[in-house]
Amino acid sequence: GYSREEALGCHACDIIVAPELRERVDQDWRDVIGNRGGDYAVNESIRKDGTGITCEWHNSPLINEDGGVFGISSFVRDVSRTIANQDALRASDELFERAFSSSPAMIAINDAETTRVINVNDTWLEFMGMERADVIDKTIAEIGFWAYPEDRLEFIEILEKEGFVRDLEIRVRTKKGILRDLLIVADVIDFAGKKCLMSVSLDIGEHKRTENLEARLGRVVEGSLNGIFIFGSETLRFSLVNKGARENLGYSSIELMNMTPLDIKPDDEVAKFSAMIDQLHNSWRDEITYETRHQRKDGTIYDASVRLNYLRDEVPPVYLAFVEDITERKIAEESARRSQKIEAIGHLTGGIAHDFNNLLGIILGNLDLLEEDLIARPDLLPLVETAQRAALRGSEMTKRLLSFSTKTAPRTIFVNINTSIVSMAPLIARSLSPEIEIINELAENIWITSINEGEFEDTILNLSINARKAMPEGGRLTFRTENKVIGPPSAEPSAAPGPGEYVHLTVGDSGTGIAKDIIDNIFDPFFTTDGLGAGTGLGLSMVYGFVERSGGSISVNSEPGQGTVFHIYLPRDVTGEALRDPAAVDQSIILGGRETILVVDDEPDLVNLAKGTLHRLGYSILTAGNAAQAMNILEMTEVGEIDLLFSDIVMPGDMNGLELARSAQVRDRNIRILMVTGYMQKITDADTYGDLTGNMLTKPYTRADLALGVRAALDGRS
Question: pLDDT for 73-107, tens place per residue?
Fold first, then answer.
C-alpha cells in the first residue's frame, strides 16, 4: 500500500514486518547475507493501513563483482487466500472425521465401481457385529450385507436413475445372521480422488416393531367384543367406535361420527353422564368406573359397565371408554338373587311345615283311632271322615310349602303334560270367568318328562289365575305344547337351561301385560300387585321353584297392552324308569305283628299316638323322647330284643334320627329301621345315610300308612 517514494530508503522490518516478527526476520536476513544462500519463509506482513497479509518470501543475497554481498533480493507473493483455503480444508477434514466417527447413524464409503469398502464408522461395525478387518477392502457381496436380492436390485435401479438414493427401506443380515431393518440414503462423492458412494443408514427396527404393534393393537381394538369409544373433551363427538360397539348399538361408523355419548343414553341417564364427565374433567382423577344403560338404534336398552379414562396429556385431550354389555350378567345375578330369596323362604316355610305336620299327624292319627271306635255309631262316621279330609288337605298344603325347602322334586313320576292339562280343564274353567276362552294347542306325541304331577298342576292353576286377573273384561288363555331340541348356541327367545331335548310349554293370555318396571320382580316371594289382603305373592315364586327343581327354566315375555306369555322348558326323560308311586295296596287289610318296636320322637303326642296305634296292632312298644334316651334303652336291652327302630329324623340334641339309626345298627346289625320326618331336608352324605331313607314315612301319616310301613320294614320290604 506504499508508493515507491514512500518505500525507498525505509528498512523493510519497519514498514512491512509485524512487530513481533521483526527480530526473527532481521536475523533471517542476516543469515542470508552471512551464508550467501537463499531463504524461503511464509509469515505475516503488514500493509500501510495496518491490515495483515500472509506472504510467501523467497530471499537471495545480491553479490557484486568483488564477491561481496551488497543487498538482498526478495520475491514476495500474497498467499493469504491459499493459506485460508488450506486451513478451511483441513478444518473440514477434521470436522468430517469427527462426524464420521461419532455419528449415531451408520456411515460407509465404498468404491463406486468395485463396491469395496474404503471406510465405515464404529456405529456401522457395532450394528453389523463386525470388526474393521472383516470389512475394509472387502466388497459388499463378500461382507454379505444384503439380506434380500430384491432390496439390492431396487437400490441399484434408483441410484442409476436418480444418481442418489433417499429414504429406502432395506433389510440386511448381520454377522450372526440376524435380519435387521434399515432406512438408507446414498450419494456419489469424490473421496481421495476416487469416485465413491457414501451411504448413511438408520436402524428402524424399533420403529417397524412399533408400527406392527400399532397395527395389531388396531386390529385388537376393532375386533374386541367389548365396546371401545374415543370422543373429544370439548364437543364429546365420537372419533372412534370399534366394531363390537357398532354392532351392539346398531349404528354405522358414519352415523356415529356425528354423534356423542349423549345420543346413546336413555333420557334418565343423560344428567348422570354429564355429572360423570364434569367430575372427571375437573378433578385430579384420570379414570372412573360406573354402571349405566345404553340405548340402541332400535330403541332397546341394555346395561353396561364403563371404564372411562380422561387422556388429558393428549393434544387435544380426549376421553377413552371401555364398555362391557353386562345384560347377561345382570340376568344371572338376578336369577341367583331370586334363588337365594326362595331358598331363604324355603328354610322358613320348611320349619313351619315341620311343626304343622306334627300337629296334623296328631289330629289325623287320633281321627283314625276315633273312626275305629265309632264303627257302632255310623251316624257319627261322616263327621270323622270330614275332619280326616280336612286334615289331608292340610297335609297337601304343607307339601306345597315344603317344596320351597329343597331343590329336588319329591316323588317324581313320568308325566304326559298334555294329559295333565286336559284333565285339569274343568278345574281351570271353574277358576276363570265365562268371558275367557280357553284354547289348547297341544302337540301330538309330546315327549314324557319326569316331574311331580301335583306341583305341575299347581303351576297350571297359578298361571291360569294370573291370566284371569290380567283379563277382567275377558280374553283368550292359550296352552301350547311342543317338543323342542335346543342346540348350542340357543336362539330361543327364552333360553332353555342348556342344549338338549325339552318339552316346551307356553301359557299365554291376551290381557293387560306386565309393566317393564316390575317384570323382573314377578318371581320374587311375596311380590304382588294385588291390593292389601288380596294375594299372597307366592304363586309365581312357587311356579319358579317347581320349574327349577325339575331341571327346567321359566321366563316371561310381556308388553303392556299386548298380553303375557310364559315359557316353560322341562327336560325330556327317555330313561324309561319312572319314580312311580308305591303300588296300590288294599288298605282295608291292616296287618299287625308280635315284634318289639322302639318309637322315638320329641313330640309326646306323636309318641303316644304311634304307641297306641301299634299296640292295637299287637306290637310291643318302647318309647323315647330323644336320641339319648333311645340309646340308653338300646344299651339296657339284649341284642335282638328290639326288632324295629321307628324314629323321627329331626330331633333336638347332639344326635339326630339318622345318627341314632346308624348307632343302633352298629350295636345290632339285624335291627330294622323305619324313619319318619315332617321336613324332608337334604341328606348331604348319601353314602352314609342313603340306605336308611329307603323305608321312610312322611308326616302326617294315617293309621294305614303306619301299619303298612312298619310291616314292610319288619319284613325287609321297601
Answer: 888 888 777 776 666 666 656 666 676 777 888 89
- Sheet strand arrangement including 69-78: 39-46, 52-63, 69-78
Q: Residues 374, 381: contact at Cβ < 8 Å?
A: yes
CATH superfamily of 413-571: Histidine kinase-like ATPase, C-terminal domain (3.30.565.10)
Domain 209-325 CATH class label:
alpha beta
Class in CATH terms, 85-203: alpha beta
Please give the residue that has the higher pLDDT: either 671 or 348: 671
Calpha distance 718→706 (Å, rounded): 14
| SS3 state at 274 | helix
For 645, other C-beta atoms within 10 Å of its C-beta total 28
How much is the average pLDDT of 339-354? 69
- Cell numbers representing residue 65 in the block: 563483482
Straight-line distance from the first to the last Cα atom of the chain, in angstroms, rounded to the nearest whole number: 144
| CATH match of 596-714 with 3.40.50.2300 | yes
Mean pLDDT of 275-289: 86
- Tell me the three cell numbers of residue 287: 379414570
**pTM summary value:** 0.38
**Could you report the per-residue pLDDT of 142-157, keeping only the tens digit for each?**
999 999 999 999 999 9
- H or E segment at 159? helix 149-162
Burial class (CB in 10 A: 0-12, 13-18, 19+), 485: exposed
Asked if 432 and 426 touch (Cβ cutoff 8 Å), the reply is no
Delimiting residues of CATH 3.40.50.2300 domain(s) in the chain: 596-714
